[in-house]
Amino acid sequence: MGGLTDRGTGRTWLWQIEHNGPWRWETGERLDGAYVVLSGPTDLDHQWSELLAPGESFTTVPVAIAVSGGGVEEAAAALTAYRRALVRPHPDRAALPVVFNDYMNTLMGDPTTDKLLPLIDAAAAAGAQVFCVDAGWYDDGGDWWDSVGEWLPSQTRFPHGLEEVLARITSHGMIPGLWLEPEVIGVRSPMAGKLPAEAFLQRGGVRLAEHGRHHLDLRHPAAVAHLDQVVDRLVEELGVGYFKLDYNIDPGAGTDRDATSVGAGLLAHNRAHLAWLEGVLDRHPHLVLENCGSGAMRMDYAMLSRLQLQSTSDQQDFLRYPPIAVAAPLSMLPEQAANWAYPQPGMSGEEIAFTMVTGILGRLYLSGNLHRMTPEQFRLVERGVRLHRSLRAGLLRATPCWPLGLPGWDDPWLALGLRTEGVTHLGLWRRPGAPETTVLRLPHLAGHDLTTEFAYPAADGWACSWDPRAAELTVTATVPPPTARILRLRAL
Questions:
Q1: pLDDT at residue 74 tops 90
Q2: Which domains can be identified in the chain, with CATH numbers?
Q3: pTM > 0.70
Q4: What is the CA angle 224-61-198, rounded to 5?
């Protein structure tokens, strides 16, 4: 996606290209004004061309444009409403369950029964409703990157079977989830020899190999049948109700098998991939699918119109995550933006609050060694989860605002607002080196008196004052950074 705004008039265009493969957008100026070009794959950039016989037609990938005379926030509100109308109906859209994932700064792809059971108990106690076992659950040898593809549970990591772990998850009333990278087959995987060569992307009759993996070609029925068997087995035999779908290689320009150009082969595969996802959800209508894509490297509304949530990053430094979380609602629905919150026992209370605030104003995506925390630390996490759960109904109607402007990577203060009828929730982060005071612009509240409440955690060294005429909220934090808070503003 991208956008153009006229800083003088406020006239703004925001756009998105709804494609899960190659794309191009271009802006420029000519003598008669500015222009925007939006497209899917092109010949120049992506080796795409399509040969049409007389009477044949070709349909391009879809794009959407939101136009506003009132600046970025007004255009973002229009694009947000359009996205809500675009996404596939799913029970998850109303429930928005809290997801705990064992990966980030916690197990880091090394799950075992002994490591998982105490984490599962702690996640349930904190209020999580989904527990996702991330990468490594299929690995017996410790070197799994180029051997994946069968997706069978490890027998060494889980001496009594993965079923014991999943049963512990369901015993707490949580939905069990697994990490899956469906589009790849490792070069050492048994599936590399079992599937026909035509089931993979090819160039010159040779299967492509990138970073130790082959890439399935989902135009081929054998590739689709293999993935359907994997998903159906994990759902129907193990009771999995959530998949984190990852994607960590680059297919290159595409495939020249049964295609007029390699880009045309890739486009047909991309569209077959979407059809496969739709088939999975048709067969398993309550299954929740997360779009990860190497930490949000494939984040588009071809995928997000079908999948329920989007991991926004694999950023491991909690101090660097806030700009990602603040910018996320420009690219996706707030209720799809799965921002990691990974509190740890070694953090101070302010640091725990800082990372929790990053996750709360979005789709809370929880991790961290909760089972090793002190009771006071755990209560701080639990209160954050409880606040998030109380905000979910409003999240489905909220539109974003940026009282300090769109974020810069090194901004000392960061702010994200989510607006609903009469209430605005603000996430505020003060990072190391930031001054004690910042001034936020909230023009949608101009002329109104406000009640202000520190919703999470307690104020403790934070204060604010409101000028209704200037529509400015002055916030002061005397607590040493890093520190963060969520404010609830109600117009009177």
A1: yes
A2: 2-86 (no CATH), 92-311 (3.20.20.70), 399-491 (2.60.40.1180)
A3: yes
A4: 30
